[in-house]
Structure formats: structure tokens, C-alpha cells
Amino acid sequence: MRKIFSFTGAKKIVFGNGSLLTLAEHLKEHHAKNPLVVIDKNLAKTGLQEKIASILASEGIRYTVFDKVEPEPRIELADEGAALSLKNKCDSVIGIGGGSAMDVAKAIAVIATNKGAAADYLGLNKIPKPGLPKIMIPTTAGTGSEVTFTAVFIRKNLKKKEGMNSPYLYPDLALLDPELTLSLPPEPTAHTGLDALCHAIESYTSINASPLSEMFSLEAIALIAENLRTCVHDGKNIAARERMLLGSLYAGIGLANAGVTAVHSLSYPLGGRFGVGHGLANTILLAPVMAFNLPGALEKFADVAEAMGECVDGLPLREAAYLAVDAVEALIEDCGITSSIRDFGVKEADFPLLADVAMTVARPLENNPRKMTKEEMIAIYAQAF
Question: pTM (2 decimals)?
């Protein structure tokens, strides 16, 4: 008998080439006249910030820019942005960029109305009331932050990553324009794309998956497997970029509803202690964790293999399932990623501490299709070494 399930998400999703040009009309839907534009440092140096300014200025919308966002953002950035928002009496927040910019933007929006500090709201359902209206505009096909209820930060003083998790972090609008991903270089295209694949596979195999979430997650796997190689090696291919962004969106929807699994628990300490980028950390750990999880979800991993283009007809279930690991390893190789955790200064002596921290990232472990001990975590870090 199937258990009760629910399905939630961003309030509105707009997708399509050129859809960025509709930004002003969506602000008007929320009666927003003075947004805070949150953008990462590197993106602010491109022509995109000027394009946003032109779109807003053409409709007489004044705005404030917060352009201090960095990869793997410090939690203090959310407090700085909220202070700027309050100072300039901003009535909405626009997050544009990768997951870092969108996570900071979502956090700013809730801090601005709930007051206090970002650290007060870390954990599950710690945010008392809604934030300012939030519009998220991804420029990478990766994190899915535009449709999730999570914002993740580095706490440098504690050398760890932590997240806010609340329905109040769901964006009011996810505005996805594939044209914004055309200029993304090959390496970040690969890292973010494989991050999206990780979200799709983890959410599909999560014990909390539902028929609705599975539908999105499995289609995400197929879209990403079919299009990521093209996006990495022929980045101006708008058809592939469009399908890849759609795959990332679907993966985000799956993630938001089914949760992720042990890959994320193991990757968090790599980001918090050694500065490994989130997408790359997930990529390095994905295949070893999948291999560990296979006995707990053979049928689902066989589905993953088939969605990634592997021929599973007539194969014993176990052999079909193992093709999922082969397919992921081949995709990672074809995207040119050869990194290991050794490359970031991780030593074998660090494995027990990393495992201790990973054990505290409890929710993904609870979703994992196979229970994982500290010793098994250490073995996975060794494989990723």
C-alpha cells in the first residue's frame, strides 16, 4: 500500500528563450517597485547586470544591487544583503546567477521580514513568517535552487556547511531563460550539470520519492544524460542548452519533494572544511555512493540506467542496475572531470573526521535507500581519494 505523499514547489514557473524580458511585468504582479538585485561578483562584470538594469529602467522600476555573492557563500553575506535591503526599503528580491546567488537572495528575502540574523534560521522550519516576494533567475543548469525551499551556506568559523529549510524559501517566481546559459564555460557547465544529475538520481532513489517526484526525476535524468555532453563541448547549441535547463528544473522539483541522499551528506564536509565546490564534490562522490546504494534499490537503478541510454533489455536486474554506475562514470569522463578529493588537500587521516561530520547531515542519510555506517562512509571517501 502506497504511503501518503505531498507535492510542493515554487508558486510560478516561466520557461523559455527570451523570457528574461518579461521580468518587469512579473515584478508588477507582486506590486514590487524597488527590488534588491542579488548577483554574484563574476556575473556582475558581464553585460547581464546592464541588461537587467535596462529592463527595469524601461518600466521606471528603481532597484538596488547587491553584488558581493561568491561561490560557496558565507552566511554573513545573507546578513549584509538583508541590511542593505532594509536600508533602501526594498520590497522584493531578485536572485540571478547560480545556486549561490539564488540561495543568498532567498535568505535575504526572509531575513528582511523576520529580522534577526541568518544563523537564527538554520535548520528545518525555523523561519516564522513569509519573506519579501522572490524572483529567481538561474544562469546555470545545475542547482535547481530556483524551485527549492533550501538555502545553503558556509560557516567558516565552524568549518561546516549548513542550510535553511522552510516553505517560506520557495520562490514566488522561477524565471528560466536558456539563453542566459549560453555563455557558461565548459568546466562550470559540467560541474553544474552533473550536480543536477546527482539531484535527479538521488531524488529518484530516495525512500521519500512519490509517483509525482519520480516522474520529474526520471525525465531529468534522461534530459541531462542526452544533452550535457553537447552543452560542455558545443556550448552555443541553444537546443541542447534549453533541454539541459529543463532537466535541471525537473531535477530541482524532484529534489524539493523527495529529498537527496547520502551523496549530499558526504559532500557537505568537503565543502565546509576543504572548499570543494558543491557540484564538483557531488560529482566525485556520485558513482561510489550509487555503487553502495545499488542493493537497496535495484529496480530503480535499472530505471536510471535505461533513462541514461543503456540497453537493459533481457539483462538480470542486478546487471541492469550496475549499468547506471557505468553510465554515470562515462558521462563524468566525457565531461572532462578527473578530480579526486586528494586534489583539494584531503588526506587519508581526514576520513574519520569527514565521516563524523557527514553523519550529522542527517536528513539525506534518512532518505538513503541503504543504511550507511561511519566505516562505510570512510570506505567511500577512500574510493573518491
Answer: 0.96
Half-sphere exposure of 246 (CA within 13 A, CB side): 16
Residue type for position 373: T
Same domain, 288 and 352: yes
291, 204: one domain: yes
DSSP per position, 40-99: EHHHHTSTHHHHHHHHHHHTT---EEEEEE-SS-BTHHHHHHHHHHHHTT--EEEEEESH
Residue 137 counted as domain residue: yes
Mean pLDDT of the chain: 95
Q: Is residue 192 part of a domain?
A: yes
Please check whether residues 256 and 348 belong to one and the same domain. yes
Starting at the earlier edge strand, list the strands of the sheet with 173-176.
13-15, 173-176, 134-138, 92-97, 35-40, 64-69
CB-based contact 97:49 (threshold 8 Å):
no
The DSSP bridge pattern shows strands 150-155 and 160-165 to be: antiparallel
- Of 121, 120, 148, 152, nearest in space to 134 by CA: 148
The answer to whether residues 327 and 308 touch, using CB atoms and an 8 Å cutoff, is: yes
Which residue bears the cell 552533473?
Answer: 194
> Is residue 2 a part of any domain in this protein?
no
How many structural domains does the chain have?
2
Query: Residues 311-320, buried b or exposed e (16+ Cβ, 10 A)?
Result: ebeeeeeeeb
Whether residue 1 is predicted with pLDDT greater than 70 in this model: the reply is: no
Contact between 384 and 348 under an 8 Å Cβ cutoff? The reply is no
What domain range is 61 assigned to?
13-181
Q: What is the pLDDT of residue 40?
A: 87
